[in-house]
TrEMBL record:
Positions with biased composition (Pro residues): 114-129
Transmembrane feature ranges: 20-42
Biased composition (Low complexity): 130-146, 155-176
Keyword line: Membrane, Transmembrane, Transmembrane helix
Protein known as: Septum formation initiator
Positions of the UniProt region annotated as Disordered: 88-176
Length: 176
């Protein structure tokens, strides 16, 4: 029985052999740790990319909706009835039958000027109406009292350096 421990002795490492295996074990553990950290970082990068992708998809959806809304608005402006209405507002009239020029110089069809549409009657400019009787207005002008803001313009001359009353807001609309 004395031989049995010797036969199994080679299975148990001696002091020098155990010291030689320690750097290898440390290297394997370090490689496994580095692999786990790399896997963790890769997973975090994939998740970040996934969040960015989701945000970009939401942005794309919002922009697509806005593009569709703007296209519908353009289509509404380009519709024949809208174009006709807008042209009428601008004073345009339908052209009538067209005339064509051929390459040899002949005119095909008969050209005629477009009919002139009736112009809408301009809106009358409001004239101020005096609130008091003529005698009260003369008495007020004689006293030199200042006018109330609701009173209309008078024939009194304006003091030097004072500007004339501003034109009514309806006047620029008539000039166009």
């Amino acid at each position: 029985m004395g031989e049995t421990p010797r036969r199994l002795a080679w299975l148990v490492p001696s002091g020098a052999t155990a010291a030689a295996r320690t750097p290898f074990v440390v290297l394997v553990v370090a490689l496994l740790g580095a692999g786990l950290i790399a896997l963790l970082l890769l997973n975090a990068a994939v998740n970040q990319g996934s969040f960015e992708l989701g945000e970009l998809r939401r942005d794309t959806t919002v922009l697509t909706d806005e593009e569709q809304r703007l296209q519908r608005e353009i289509d509404a402006y380009a519709a024949p009835d809208a174009l006709s209405r807008r042209a009428g507002e601008l004073g345009m009239v339908p052209g009538g039958a067209p005339a064509f020029l051929s390459l040899d110089g002949r005119v095909r069809g008969s050209a005629s000027p477009a009919p002139v549409p009736p112009r809408p009657a301009p809106s009358p400019t409001p004239t101020p109406t005096p609130k008091a009787s003529a005698s009260a207005g003369a008495a007020r002008a004689g006293e030199g009292a200042s006018q109330s803001p609701t009173a209309g313009p008078t024939a009194d001359p304006a003091p030097s350096g004072a500007s004339q009353s501003a034109p009514s807001p309806a006047a620029p609309a008539q000039e166009r």
